[in-house]
Amino acid sequence: MFKKVLVPIDLNEPAFAEEALKLALREVEDNGAELHLLTVVPGFTNSFVAAYFSEKDHINAVKKIAGKLQDYSHTVMPEGVHPILRVYEGSPAETIVDYITAKEINLVIMPAHHRSKIDEFFLGSVSARVAERAKCSVLLLKDNN
């Protein structure tokens, strides 16, 4: 049914994406979908943050994060499944939406963090912004805790 499936991964809370990955893998196995795993590094493109890191530190940090995503993928993917792994920098919601458009993603499966109403008001919700702005189907998995 879906040709390209994206699961954004928060490497600070990788276990939070477990259910999303299970559903995505079902699309891969049942329909031969192409699986994309994406993590977004916020901050380095911000000029205030960039002032404190050298270009070398920046490159090393992104490489380290890419390695973490690769390690994560190796631990959770069944044999024979080789997702497309990407690390991008920027605002998580905007970057995910841009990736969806650029790669012609058909389905995004992502967890929706359960935050307090105050957190939602001040921080917003990456999952809500993606669902609102994406031009494809978005499946949000809510935490029942």
UniProtKB/TrEMBL annotation:
SUPFAM superfamilies in alphabetical order: Adenine nucleotide alpha hydrolases-like
Family, per entry: Belongs to the universal stress protein A family.
Domain of life (superkingdom): Bacteria
Phylogenetic classification of the source organism: Bacteria, Pseudomonadati, Pseudomonadota, Gammaproteobacteria, Oceanospirillales
Domain UspA: 1-142
Protein name in the entry: Nucleotide-binding universal stress protein, UspA family
One Pfam family hit: Usp
InterPro entries found in the cross-reference section: Rossmann-like_a/b/a_fold, Universal_stress_UspA, UspA
Organism: Neptunomonas qingdaonensis
